[in-house]
Amino acid sequence: MTPPEAPVDGKHHPGNMPPAASVCAPVSLTVLKNRSDFLKAARARRQGTSSMMVQARKRAPDEACGIRVGFTCSKKVGNAVARNRAKRRLREAARAILPEAGRDGWDYVLIGRAEVTANRPYDALLGDLRYALRKVHASGK
């Protein structure tokens, strides 16, 4: 078998190039979409940090598998642009931290804070999420 040829026009064509190695974590995150899941998490454990509030709950064994995560930002965070920016940053932090620090069988809801979530340095945002997860899991032993 011969290796695929490079595209003539310099653009990526799926049939012309081998698949790139995945840099994603092996644990996949499922996004919460139902209001009932958010409400169940709101009644469970919570831990605040300077950049976000983290709500977490251990699901029943027959409910679902894997790590599930939801994101929310109220209008207190700002206009639509500010809320979307804060949620994008929370999503990236969750993708980076939850596969290593989250636990299978848990739901997490990350809530943005006004003016802080969108402006906090990314490394500090990751540190805040790690801290909140440690505290939430420590209180459940």
How would you characterize this protein structure?
With 141 residues, this protein is α/β, with parallel strands linked by helices. It has helices spanning 35-42, 80-101, 122-138; strands at residues 29-31, 45-48, 52-58, 67-72, 106-112. Strands 1-4-5-3-2 form a 5-stranded mixed sheet, with helices on both faces. Helix 2 crosses helix 3. The longest helix is centred in the middle third of the chain and has 22 residues, at 80-101. The radius of gyration is 19 Å and the shape is globular. The termini are far apart.
Feature tags:
141 residues, alpha/beta, 5-stranded mixed beta sheet, globular
Order of helices and strands: EHEEEHEH
State which percent range the strand residues make up: 15-25%
Nearest-angstrom radius of gyration? 19 Å
Query: What is the overall pLDDT average?
Result: 84
Q: Give the neighbour order of strands across the main sheet.
A: 1-4-5-3-2
* Category by helix and strand content: alpha/beta
Number of strand segments: 5
Q: How far apart are the first and last residues' alpha carbons, in Å?
A: 55 Å
Largest sheet: 5 strands, mixed
How many helical stretches? 3
Low-confidence stretches: 19-25
Helix content: 25-40%
Shape: globular
